[in-house]
Amino acid sequence: MAIRTLLLGVLLLAATSLCAAPDGAQLYGQHCAVCHGSQGRGGVGVPIALPAFLATVDDEFLFKTIRTGRPGRVMPAFTDLSDAQVSALVKHLRSWAPSQQVISHSDRRVKGNVSRGKELYGKHCAGCHGAKGEGGHGTGVTFSRPRELPVMPPALNNKGFLTAASDSMIKQTLMKGREGTPMMSYLAMGLKERDINDIVAYVRSFETAPLLWRPPEDEAPVLEMASPYSVEETVENLKRAIVGKNFVVIRIQTLDNGFVPEAKEDHHQVIVYFCNFNFINQALSLDPRIGLFMPCRITVVEQDGVVKVMSINPKYQSRLFNNEELDVPCEEMTDVYKGIIEEATI
Q1: CA distance 182 to 47
Q2: Distance set, CA 293 to CA 9, 311, 332 (Å)
Q3: What is the rounded distance in angstroms from the CA atom of residue 74 to the CA atom of residue 71?
Q4: Cα separation, 116 vs 343, whole angstroms
Q5: Is this model's pTM higher than 0.90 or not?
Q6: What DSSP line would sit under 153-165, residue for residue?
Q7: What radius of gyration, in Å, describes the C-alpha atoms of the chain?
Q8: pLDDT tens profile 81-122
Q9: 55: burial class by Cβ within 10 Å (0-12, 13-18, 19+)?
């Protein structure tokens, strides 16, 4: 009888666990805090705990933003989360401004003059959001942008933004502005509602405009070659090739360094770190987000008697930046990686 009662208790506990509502705070810590900050105050990502932001966006906008992300930007699409988990995340975001009334925006399209809106956009919006709605360069963190800007202006021509944002939400943002950001109320600036309608119509026209930038379609995310040499010989070859490309070898360490005792490190899995500081400084001046992939590194791994040499493909990774200026240095860096790996494995 006691065993039967215990089993029933275990089954009830398991059923309760399966039926328990998702924990929005926990999900936020797992998926969002690294970019937006533990309290939503921003970091690599924009601050999302601003009361003025939460006052002008509805739950549908937040839900769709989590679902679709911002293609071509750092914000990914969280397609693996269930609807219940996304809803829990939205509820957690709302907890940062509990006194704010949840707004429900209309799906009705705002009628305006696109040509006139383009002219008004160029005068009032392009300085922050880009001439073609491409958004500001850099990230949310202050070292990558002017310190007087608390956020980086988002890309308005982004498919994810245009999917999530209703015309009503865009219009209300223009009318009210965003306290705590450089975004001012356009009504306070002297524009009329008709002017704002025209700007909204122009922003919505980005949906049918050709993409300003397309990710390379024929590039693999990882560069990989087999080496006929041992791990030790391959690493020595890499060192010579790196120096030959005017880069400096920074350090060489095992892949599991710091995760296991030094005596148990696997020397069949090695990372070679290297750098050309002049090249990096030039790239960082174009867009500090490229620092996500610095310093340069090449991994050498032996599996089943085969030595493989691998690195990221900067030309492929450039799709994260949505910044045409970075196309050239990313392509140059891909050529450098390929040249070093080829030379080390000949």
Answers
A1: 13
A2: 50, 11, 14
A3: 8
A4: 57
A5: no
A6: PPPSS-HHHHHH-
A7: 25
A8: 999 999 999 999 999 988 777 777 878 899 999 999 999 999
A9: middle
